[in-house]
Amino acid sequence: MSRSIRFFIPLIVLLAIVGISACGSSEPSADDFVAEADEICTEQVRDFQKVEAKLGSSADLKEEETLQKQLLPLREKSLSELEEVEAPGDAAKPYDRYLEIRRQLRDVRAEQLKLLEKGDEEALEPVNEKIGDLNDELDEVGKEAGLKACASVLPKDQAKEAQKVVEEVALTTDPKRVCRELVTQNYLDLGFEGKFEVCAKFQREESDNFADAVKVEEVSGVADTSASVHITEVGGMYDGEESVWVLTREGGEWKVNLISASA
Fold first, then answer.
1. pTM recorded for the entire structure
2. Quick check: helix, strand or coil at residue 85?
3. Which residues pair with 218 in a beta bridge?
4. Quick one: which H or E segment has residue 226?
5. Which positions ≥6 away from 127 have C-beta within 8 Å?
6. Measured between alpha carbons, how far is 217 from 229 in angstroms, rounded to an integer?
7. Domain residue spans in the chain?
8. Does domain 156-261 have CATH number 3.10.450.50?
9. Residues 105, 98: Cα–Cα separation, whole Å
10. What are phi and psi of 236, to 5 degrees?
11. CB burial class (10 A; 0-12, 13-18, 19+) of residue 136?
12. Distance of CA 89 to CAs 2, 92, 98, 225, Å?
């Protein structure tokens, strides 16, 4: 055997080993990571919307219990899928923290469900506050990992569209425009007996009490799916009061789905 052949064989083996090692240590790109995780989060929100559309929104504890029980397996499913997503490089550490917060939320929501079953409204207050705090932290850590949908980061153009709809509903007195075009049926069900006529009457009779302007504090959400617009009213009956307007996407347009008080 020649000298060149003796050295050639180990070189092939070495290249094979290096190739296997390189393949085994490959990690997804940042774009692939974000796309995979955000697809899971977006699907969860859409699944939530289907359940909420079926059950409706209510402040009744028993109805909230029913809702949370149906959302529970959807949360478990998305968490399980997110745990299978591999984060690259600098995103790995914040993503690990992101998953840990989601697990904490799972545990706190289990406690929330027990209290809903008992009907203990007073004990629910600190638990709901904890859920809110954890969700805020989840979004911040998600942003550190570069996530969008999983961190409630709405594209700027859609954020502006959602903000415009909220401003129009809050300030305009045009019954047809508001009650037929800018709000969902769920919105009508919650505050106006599900009827256009009741909503239109409110728009006409309460127009003097409407705000003069709204100050937008924050806009968040999931692209083409849902948006939350946190505002403070300026002037009118509710001057200085804060609220969160939740919008959903219907036919490519944002519509107000419900309004909740802000803590």
1. 0.81
2. coil
3. 230
4. strand 226-234
5. 108, 111, 112, 115
6. 8
7. 30-147, 156-261
8. yes
9. 11
10. 75, -175
11. exposed
12. 45, 6, 15, 29
Tokens standing for residue 30: 């940042």
Which residue has 């959302």 as its token pair? 71
pLDDT (tens place) for every residue of the chain, 263 residues total:
444 433 344 444 433 444 444 444 577 899 999 999 999 999 999 999 888 888 766 668 888 899 899 999 999 999 999 999 999 999 999 999 999 999 999 999 999 999 999 999 999 999 999 999 999 999 999 999 999 999 999 999 999 999 999 999 999 889 999 999 999 999 999 899 999 999 999 999 998 999 999 999 999 999 999 999 999 999 999 999 999 999 999 999 999 999 987 65
CB neighbour class for 145 (10 Å; exposed up to 12, middle 13-18, buried from 19): buried
Q: What is the DSSP string of 95-146?
A: HHHHHHHHHHHHHHHHHHHHHHHHT-HHHHHHHHHHHHHHHHHHHHHHHHTT
